[in-house]
C-alpha cells in the first residue's frame, strides 16, 4: 500500500528531515563564466609576494622544460592563499608565469571546487551534508553554524570572518558529522562542539582539529580497538611445519 500524498508531505515537513535535493547555492557552482565586478576585474593588479615568488621558483624546477604547466594547480593554490580567493587577475598572472593561454588556466580554476572565485571570509567553514553525515544529523550542525556565525549557507558574514558552505563528501565518513575549516577537519561534531569551535575562531584561536567529544584518535572505532590490540606474531606464524 502506497503512502498518501499528505503522509509524504508531513514526513518531509518535519523539521529534522530535509529533502535529498537542495536549492542551496554551492560555492563550486558559481562563476563558471566570468563577469567583471568592482572587486574582480583584470584592471586590479595582482603580484605574488616575495615569499611566494621563491616558492614558485622552487616549484618550477620540479618540472622539465615543456611541462611547466604541470605547476598550474600549485600556483593557483598559492595565489588563493595569498589573496584569500582567486580573482581573474591572479589567474592571468599564473598564465603569464607558465607562458600558457589564459583559457587553460580558466579551465582548471573553474573545474576544481577548491578554487573560490568570489570573496571569502577568513575562515571557510565547509559542512559535509552528504549521506553519512546527514544520517548523523548534519542538519543540526548547519543550523548551529549558520546561527553562531550569523551567516547563511553560501554567504559571507558581515564581519568577513566566515563563509559557510554545504559540500559533498569530504572523506571522513567514519567520523560523521564533520566540517572543514580552511585546511583542518573537525569531526564527531555536535551542535555544541560546533559552536565552541566557531567561537574559538572568533577569538583568534585555532582549536585542535580532529575528533571532538570522543577519546578516539583519527578514525579508530568509536568503542575502542577490537583488533590489532597486541603485538603481531613473528615470522612463520600459521605456516605448516611439514612445508
UniProtKB/TrEMBL annotation:
CDD domains recorded: TRX_Fd_NuoE
One cellular component (GO) term of this entry: catalytic complex
PROSITE patterns membership: COMPLEX1_24K
Gene3D superfamilies named among the record's database cross-references: Glutaredoxin, NADH-quinone oxidoreductase subunit E
The organism of origin for this protein: Apis mellifera
Protein name: NADH dehydrogenase [ubiquinone] flavoprotein 2, mitochondrial
UniProt key word Iron: yes
Cofactor(s) listed: [2Fe-2S] cluster
Highest taxon above the source species: Eukaryota
Signal peptide segment: none
BP term (GO), one: mitochondrial electron transport, NADH to ubiquinone
Region (Disordered) residue spans: 202-243
Entry's family note: Belongs to the complex I 24 kDa subunit family.
